[in-house]
Amino acid sequence: MQSFMQTLVFGIFAGAIYGIAAMGLALVFGVLKILNIAHGELVMLGGYVGFWAFSTLGWDPFLSLIIVIPAIFIVGLILDRIVYRHIVRQLGEEKIKNSLLVSFGLGLVLQNLAQALFTGDERSVQVSYAGEGLNIYGVLLPWTRLATLGIVLIVTLALHFFLRKTYPGKAILATAEDYESAELAGINIGRVYMMTFALGAALAAIAGQFVTFTYSLAPSIGMTWTLKAMIVIVLAGTGSILGALPAGLLLGVVEAMAGAYLAQTYKEVAGLVIFLFVLIVRPQGLFVRK
Amino acid sequence: GGEETTTTTLATGTTATTTVSSTETTGTTEPLPATIKVGAVIPLTGKYSGLGEQVKNGYELAVAEINAAGGVDVGGTKVPLELSILDDESDATKTVQQLETHSSNGVVAYLGGAGSDLHAAAAGIAEKNKIAYVGIAFALYTGVMDQGYKYVFSPFPKSQDMAETIFDLLDSFAPKPSKIVVFAEKTDWGAELTRLWTEQATTRGGYTVTAYEYAPGTTDFSALIVPAKDANAEVLLALPSGPDGLAMMKQIKELDWNASVYLLIRAPDPPTFGENLGKDSDGVFLLPGWNNGLPYAGVKEMAAAYKEKYGKPAAALTGPAYSCVQILVDAITRAASLDRDAIRDAIAATNLDTLVGNVQFKPDGTSSVGCPVNQWQGGKQALVFPADVALVPPIYPAVPWKDRQ
Amino acid sequence: MKTTSRQLPSFKPSRRWLTPGAIAVLLAFAVVFPQQVAKDNVWNLFFLMCLGIAMGQSWNMLGGFAGQTSLGHAAFFGIGAIITRVLWFHGTPFFLALIVGGVAAATFAMIIGAPTFRLRGAYFAIGTLAVAEVLRITIAQNQPYISTMPGSMIAEYNLPSRYWLALGLAIATTGAAYMLLRSRWSLGILGVREDEEAAQATGVHVLRHKLLALGLSAVFMGLAGGVFAFKQISYYPEAPFFPTFTFEALMIAYIGGLGTVSGPVIGGIFFVVVRERLAANLTDVHQVIFGALFVVIVLLLPGGLLEIWDRSKRLALRVIRR
Amino acid sequence: MPDFLNVDAINVAHGDIQALWDVSLEVGQGEIVALIGPNGAGKTTLMRAIAGLHPLKSGTVLLRDKALHALPAHRIVEQGVIMVPEGRRLFGGLTVMDNLELGAYSKRAREVRANTLELVFELFPLLAERRTQRANTMSGGQQQMLAVGRALMGVPKLLMLDEPSLGLGPLVVENIFETVRQMNQQGVTIFLVEQNARQALELAHRAYILEQGRIVGTGLGDELLRDDRVQQAYLGICPAPEE
Amino acid sequence: MLLNLEGVSKAFKGLKAVNSVSTRLEEGKILGLIGPNGAGKTTLFNLITGVYPPTEGKIFFDGKDITSVAPHARCWMGIARTFQLVRPLPELSVLDNAAIGRVYGRDPIRNRSKAEKASYETLEMVGLAARASEKAKSLTLVDRKRLELARALAAKPKLLLLDELLAGLNPSEVLTSMALIQSIRDMGITIIMVEHLVKAVFGIADQIVVLSAGELIAEGTPAEIACNESVIDAYLGRSLHA
Ligand SMILES: Nc1ncnc2c1ncn2[C@@H]1O[C@H](COP(=O)(O)OP(=O)(O)OP(=O)(O)O)[C@@H](O)[C@H]1O
Ligand SMILES: Nc1ncnc2c1ncn2[C@@H]1O[C@H](COP(=O)(O)OP(=O)(O)OP(=O)(O)O)[C@@H](O)[C@H]1O
Ligand SMILES: [Mg+2]
Ligand SMILES: [Mg+2]
User: Fold this and answer.
1) For the domain that residue E217 is a member of, what is the CATH number?
2) Which of these three, E156, E185, E201, is where a domain ends?
3) What per-residue string of b and e applies to C210-239 under the rule 16 or more CB within 10 Å gives b?
4) Is E24 within a domain?
5) DSSP string, B42-91
6) Which of B299, B323, E12, E189 is most buried, by the most CB atoms less than 10 A from its CB?
């Protein structure tokens, strides 16, 4: 029982990171209809900023979010300027395909630039209080993991509020629906695109920071996180941004349970099989009203 | 120029005897080219790039030193080495393509990269092209060194050497630990090591071994750590890749499993391991294949030159990489020819003191070289075993997580 | 009803065919050049080009003609590779093994086709990616051992024969794409790409046409996998299932010109040559440049390299008119 | 001389194909001006060009003294020039209410949003009922109402309507035309493109005729209604229902 | 009876878009389907063509129950349609757009070049022959509507459903199209047309069905409908009679 709970809890913790990693992708995909394969590279870059803050400034990784987020937000702005801006006005499927390709190329560039800048060595951040935490009837809840979960929850709620309740948020949704109409409503769509993309990048950066101190970082981790994030957003469902969190948690728990009770080697398969199952019985996703 | 064109003949006779050089290749009477072309294919990008960089630096340092001294003595004439390095992006398919490129450019020998799967792909090509291949930075035996290849040489410890050394180490501890847990990566190397470890445990006696398999790329190890902890296991043996190893150690701490020995092959090798884990890296054993504190001839000089050139201490793979060049140069000199087969034969007959100790190749292309054990101590790798070369004693048992401040 | 039987004006749909002359030149070059140079890296380069063309054509049949962006083509490639190799190593004549591999890939495609085609657009893409990953991981778990050609095969190994096979496959695949596009089936397949509902209302059995495109695409991708298995001396059985192969196929189709027959040919040649040249000459930064080049092509030439041709044609026309 | 909206000698092309040739027209403050012409004449193109959705090759568009052609579309909206695009173009996935609120996105409109909303709901009570329905699940006619409603939310000074009656039932068409008239009486200038030439000319003070990208005629609304050529080309007599 | 609807309903999450509609249609007639916006006309088309399954009721075509027949199979049986918001296949040529109907519709021609030749004639009929080799996306709205019609006609339907084909045409174009619709009827094709141009519908329809809020509120000849009080209230308004 105790080990079951321990597995469950770690599944949830892992899932929280999946959730936040997917949320930025969901935002950019659901809103801009851009399938950004380079999302994982943004996660990776965020991780490096956090690593740098820790190793040279000695900042706590939770504190350094205050520089990680703006840094990658700016990277997002720049990437939008030089790359994504040019495809965002294309239509429907065309745009999705082109974005797939452009971001694949961009992913190569970012990954290899990171390789040149930071070398291929794995990096990670180990805080002095790593491993400390709550012990509830033998189930361990490390502070770092709890804080991660908490931040993910807060970010999710804030994002939801922003999109649904504020004018700039609604402008983002409107632009996603029909950019010309949005222009005709007086929305500066160029800015909306830029902000949305940068916001997505900032979310990726948060994920990157968590990845860095929970697991590890290397220039090549991008693709893994893109794949995970894509699976999560499909689980969550079309256009569901908030749904990325529960979907991420679900994936995390399924993988952890499969790892503990089926076979550790097949746990990713278990996650993917659940994913395919959901796709087939509920193609609109789990967290979307039909 | 002296480019040679190997046409792969369908005749099977050439494989039976290795001493007969094939008829198409040029003899020693041919005028010598301006340089000796040697081709290396190294993973400079992708998942093995961290290792690849060490290997590359080792080669480049060695070649620079040889050329600074005028080059290689080929039958009395000094000819400089021309080392051409191509990147295979840690992708075995690309390794093949790059080796073919080298071959067509007329290299006289290949130098290998890093990582078992890339070496395995490369070995077949070397064999097909009949070009000698000297490669380090992989311990996998099955599938690479057991294929009966004639052109593949590896002056680097193999899994069997590692397994023996590890159990020598465990045997040397007092009190002797008994409960071993293996986190077995589900790869051929993982299977090979798990098998060898289990064999060693049985032959030496006094050990129990439980193996848990996991897939490479796993981020969450709680499903392995929780049962290991519940069973009060004392020794962890594993061969994680870099990222897997970091995640593993972090979660061992998070889940508060206190073993006496953490012995990880591969992940703790790069210097960044200590930086990444800080004091939590302390006590982790590793078998990097080499150490810049080993008492072999030339190690000190090389370490100093390395530090001068790259601004950091010579890493574990740089020594063996340097040795590959030493072996190759020695062989070319003895062959007194740039004929590919002559070089191959000369390599097979190597008896040379190198940075990895004395190298003499067995028929399968391996060589017994030292297999030093390091341990992370105070954020640095320390040479702790075998006792005759050890610089400091090992920490045993590992300090419990709670007591590390 | 008007039954004007007057002569039809030339309404041949304006397709972008390489002229027969260009085809002949290309073929002659593909046959003569590697033999003249007779170097391993040239054989190898040409082999990779042909394999790339075959993969690009295959992907294009589904992605370009039927408009279904698949990210799971590596699954077909991998199945073709593993089946061909296992059968071949166990004594089946190679060509038989190759064909069984292709058929197996198509069979697998048919099995996963019906459920995955319930997904649209990007969801189809991600769904197929997941299918391929399931397969890759499963294979990696079950077959973690390196697959190496036995020594006897290495001794007899002959690179040009690999190339001729790949060339044959590239020609066959291109021919198949051409025939498909000229057949009446293409109307339905293209119709599905343009507007499923409208096509359906006009009597097109949507699923059947998607499956047709998928099946054909999978056969050729499977055959390409089989050729890979024939060429590669040793690799992990998991390797042909890597998403890299999907992306390579997709990029080749895309770079050349999606939905055309000549596109993947141009794309395959361009892609492989550029990648290999960069990798050989700019070891340190080749990936960065390749990635950037890719971005630039997609941004500046959304219609692929064929667009350069189209644009220059239009430009020429305008100049002439003046 | 009307001097509210001044379109002067604009040329617009779609890629290589020129759609508008030296088109000039004027709309005076408080006027209703209709633009009629056959399909493909370039009416939509002209409207889009004024709204800033399509770049000009040459020529100027002035609102009073403000050069609209130099502004991006969203800044033109801020000047009070608002267009109801052809084919409705709603924010399909958002609710009716979201659509209306977004119509009042510009700062000017946002300040008076509550009032305008009341007005729109008065005009189209159905929209009030369907507040939470997703726009793309509404019928064609309902969507057109929403499109007009959304434009009104922007508090237009110049309202441009591109075929607002397209696909609407007779009652709704009447409703729309009546709305347009009311808006105009409240001081909104109207520029209208319509296929339904008769109703358009009845409503409009003045009208322009656009054919093949060129203005080929202009006049007062009822003048043109009586014009032979216009009658022939645009008014054609539909057979009356047999009663 | 060519088409027979028996108590057909379609609900979208509680909203009854079509509510228990029953009607029958004889062969060779033009049925005008009118009603206010949102009455359920397009939805009824979608039910007849099989885009949605009905929530209740049965649909018979040519004496056969087609309630659960797939859309493409209904086309094979002879039901073709145009869309209210036009949906040509934009990247295909005008000719190919029409040829699809000929290759896949009822009584298909399997040989592609023969099918192309036959569809060219259909294009002539709707006046698009001159643009046969252009891409469909380069057409104007009206031409796209014509193309939709050609595509539907090429499928050799017995029953043709026209959803607001006349919307957006100017009066003289309306007249031409009306003549075209009549000539299609004269070819023996039964037609249901949804149209808000009441004058036009009344001018050529043999029978009118009026939907309002999903319900069939009146059915009869154009003359009968024009005087029907409930139709005037729900849809036509007084002005038509003023
Ligand atoms: N996006 C486009 N690309 C190419 N050509 C276009 C495009 N939009 C319109 N055209 C062409 O420009 C010309 C004018 O089109 P426009 O839509 O402005 O006409 P319109 O008068 O509004 O017609 P309608 O009454 O059908 O709405 C037409 O010949 C049309 O084919
Ligand atoms: N997919 C859908 N989901 C939810 N509601 C729908 C859907 N499709 C149609 N409706 C609703 O069903 C009703 C009937 O719509 P329908 O499109 O059939 O009307 P219509 O008679 O064709 O109107 P119009 O003349 O305006 O085109 C409307 O209230 C509409 O909002
Ligand atoms: Mg228009
Ligand atoms: Mg309708």
Assistant:
1) 3.40.50.300
2) E156
3) bbbbbbbbbbbbbbbbbbbbbbbbbbbbbb
4) yes
5) E--SSTTHHHHHHHHHHHHHHHHHHHHTT-EEETTEEE-EEEEEEE-TT-
6) B323
Answer whether C114 touches A (CB < 8 Å).
no
Q: Tell me which ligand sits closest to the C-alpha of residue D50.
A: 1
Q: C154 and B190 in contact by Cβ < 8 A?
A: no
Let me know the angle formed at the C-alpha of A234 by A81 and A96, rounded to the nearest 5 degrees. Answer: 35
Paired residues of E30 in beta bridges: E191
Looking at the fold, whether E19 and E72 belong to one and the same domain comes out as yes
CB contact under 8 A, C200 and E75: yes
pLDDT digits (tens, 9 = 90+) for E65-119: 999 999 999 999 999 999 887 888 888 999 999 999 999 988 888 888 888 899 9
pLDDT, averaged in runs of 10, over chain C (322 residues): 39 51 84 85 90 96 92 96 95 95 96 87 86 89 85 86 95 95 91 90 92 96 96 88 91 88 92 85 80 84 77 76 66
The tokens describing A175, both together, are 């632009």
Do E167 and E236 fall within a single domain?
yes
Q: In Å, how far is B212's CA from the nearest CA of chain A?
A: 8
* B142 to C158: CB separation less than 8 angstroms, yes or no: no
Domain chopping of chain C, boundaries: 41-240
**Structural domain boundaries, residue E107:** 90-141+148-156
Q: Is A239 in Cβ contact with D105 (below 8 Å)?
A: no
Token pair 């007969």 is found at B20
Chain B hits for C285, Cβ within 8 Å: none
E177 in any annotated domain: yes
Give this prediction's pTM.
Answer: 0.86
Residues E20 and E54 grouped into a single domain: yes
Quickly list H helices, C16-120: 20-37, 40-60, 73-89, 94-116
Helix (H/G/I), strand (E/B), else coil: E18: strand
Q: Which two tokens stand for residue D113?
A: 């949003």
Residues in Cβ contact with B11 at an 8 Å cutoff, skipping those fewer than 6 apart: none
Which residues of chain E neighbour C184 with C-beta distances below 8 Å?
A: 103, 110-112, 115
How far does B367 lie from chain A, in Å, by closest CA?
Answer: 29
Distances (CA, A) of C89 to A143, B117, C164: 54, 20, 21
Helix (H) or strand (E) segment spanning residue E15: strand E15-25
- Residue from E47, E91, E100, E181 to probe the interface with C (highest C Cβ count within 10 Å): E100
The ipTM of this complex is 0.84
Nearest residue of C to residue E77, measured between CA atoms: C203
Ligand 2 pocket: which of D127, D133, D137, D168 to mutate (most atoms <8 Å of CB)? D137
Which of these, B315, B291, B274, lies nearest to B391 by C-alpha position? Answer: B291
Tell me the HSE value of B186 on the side-chain side, using a 13 A CA sphere.
Answer: 21
Asked whether D154 lines ligand 1 (CB < 6 A), one says no
Residues E163 and E72 reside in one and the same domain = yes
Domain boundary among E156, E183, E205: E156
Least CA distance to E105: which residue of chain C?
Answer: C203
Angle between the N-to-C axes of helices C159-182 and C206-231, in degrees from 0 to 180, rounded to the nearest 10: 170
Taking the Cβ of residue C199 and every Cβ of chain E, the question of whether any pair is shorter than 8 Å is answered with yes
Residues E74 and E171 in one domain: yes
Domain A2-281 is found in CATH 2.60.40: no
- In 3D space, the residue among A181, D40, D42 whose CA is nearest the CA of residue D25 turns out to be D42
User: Do residues E66 and E170 share a domain?
Assistant: yes
In a domain, E84, yes or no: no
For residues E102 and E118, is the Cβ–Cβ distance under 8 A?
yes
Tally of structural domains, chain E: 2
Residue type, B10: L
**E169 with E60, same domain?**
yes
Residue E83 within any structural domain of the chain: no
